[in-house]
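Hi R.,

Quick one: here's the Autoinducer 2 import system permease protein LsrD sequence you asked about.
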Amino acid sequence: MTERTETRGLFSRLPQINPVWVLLAALIVAIIFMNPGFVEPTGYMNFLKRAAPLAILAAGQVYVITSGGFDLSVGSLITLVVVGSSMLTNNDPTATYWVIPVMLGIGLGTGLVNGLVVCFLRVPSLIATLGMMITLNGLAFMWSGGAPRGYLPDTFRFFGRELIRDVPLVRFIPVSVIVLIVVVGLFAWLMHRTNLGRQVHAIGDNPVAARLAGVSVNRTRITAFMLSGLSGAIAGILLGGFAGVSTDVGTGYELQAITAAVLGGAQLLGGRGSVPAALGGALALTAIFTLLNFLGLPQPVRQVVQGLILIAAVALAMHRRKQTGT
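And here's the predicted structure, written out as tokens:
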């Protein structure tokens, strides 16, 4: 009995690896097996470029999920950012320099409104952000007249499709990958190295106890929604860069972001979440979509797989939560 206890204690002291990284490694091996060219810089850099908007979105979504909520409005926010940017730039390259700050402000403002509705009107986040999703979609269609107009100038599309060349070892780095590293790094630092992250985890675990401990629950929740809105605006800027103007460019991204966060171990009831693990979830989800494309499977199959992954990830998370008694 003593030896078993000592062995268990030894394993508990070993570094714990999030299963999402094991899954990602297995998927990457499968991609390389099907497409050996993936090991070339062009292969894995284009993969990271495609994953960047979802990874940034998941990094913001994990704040809301960890605090005990949902944000279903980010997909529509992406669409509004892309459509709105094309309308405001009006084919003028110099307009990019004020349009991008405006779009980032719209993202923060959307998150602020979501947070205020949830905190002060006591509307469940699922309903509040669903209403915001419908509102933003309506605004995008009203603004564009129901069809995309104009185009995004090269100065705007720079962030989504431009490459920095002559980089040692990797030859080139997409600007979107640099944006990904900066944004996810900042979000990870805020979540895991500042008081904000501790407060987000505290209110997600037990908001009553957090309030009694002196945590400003409403302010923390509103901040979480604002960070999610900011991530949606940044993702929209990147998607506008390499996808162009479309009225359905953001469709489905809200559920993909939730799936990525949950795949990384975030608990839908709140109290646990990790930005690096959400990044791993986004990369794993992108890898799954890449494999499905290699297999030549249609878009509906991708949606079925995404739904099954979300169900399985939540079921596994609930099982582990029950086992640990938290």
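Residues 107 and 230 are 5 Å apart (CA to CA).

Cheers,
M.
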